[in-house]
Amino acid sequence: MKFLADHRWAGISGITAIVGIAVVIIIAIVQAPHDAGLSGASQVSSQAITPSAGAESPTPDAPPSFQASTSPAIFYLKDLTDDMVVRRPHWVWDNEGLASIAGTPYPNSLSYEFQNCSACDESLEFIVPPGYTRLTGTFGLSDKSRHDNLINGVVYFTVYDAAGKQLVPPTRVEYPHSVPVDIPLNGQPRIRIEMSDGDNYEEFVLGDAALARS
Fold first, then answer.
1. How does DSSP assign 149-192, residue by residue?
2. Which of 78, 76, 82, 80 lies closest to 111 in space, CA to CA?
3. How far apart are CA 65 and CA 74, in angstroms?
4. C-beta atoms surrounding 88 within 10 Å
5. FRET label pair with 154: which of 50, 147, 188, 207, CA 20 to 30 Å apart?
6. Which H or E element spans position 108?
7. Contact 135, 179 (CB under 8 A)
8. Cα dihedral: 70, 76, 78, 81 (round 10)
9. How far apart are CA 51 and CA 42, in angstroms?
């Protein structure tokens, strides 16, 4: 009886060992493709986030810049971009391009017609790109401006540097007269042109106003 019991336990042990080996083999077979898949996925992911040799990461567009060697000799204020303008007139109708003062056309002008105000003060302030040394133009009231017994056709302008110092003191302009402007900027990073004492329907013109390189 002991021999039979031992024989039965040996048989059971052998069967258990065989089943165990089979389970290990099955697990190994199932696991192998899974590991291979993970390895492949890791490699794909790594390739997706790692730039190839010699490639550069994309960079955002840089803002417009001016180089003294490539910028035009004359840069008209009508071509100022938004990132160059610090302050614009508000209570005005503005126009870019052709304007005339006392019958003389100025094709590259900025014009501001005062609206809904009396004795208005408005300013145009802008960044001076590197290399420009003078502000030039002809300032006056356009031929479209109203000038009669009610509207006197008179506006003052003043030019300031970045620190608020007057480069041009308050200057009176009465239609149909105009004032030629040629102002040294002396390395100023910003300029502000103030137009004051304007009334409804008076249109002040920065005739062919431009930044120039000496």
1. SS---EEEEEEE-TTS-EEEEEEEEETT-EEEEEEE-TT-SEEE
2. 78
3. 15
4. 16
5. 188
6. strand 104-114
7. no
8. 30
9. 15
**Beta-bridge partner residues of 160:** 166, 192
- The structure's pTM equals 0.68
Residue type, 210: A
How far apart are alpha carbons 194 and 125 in whole angstroms?
8
d(CA 100, CA 9): 117
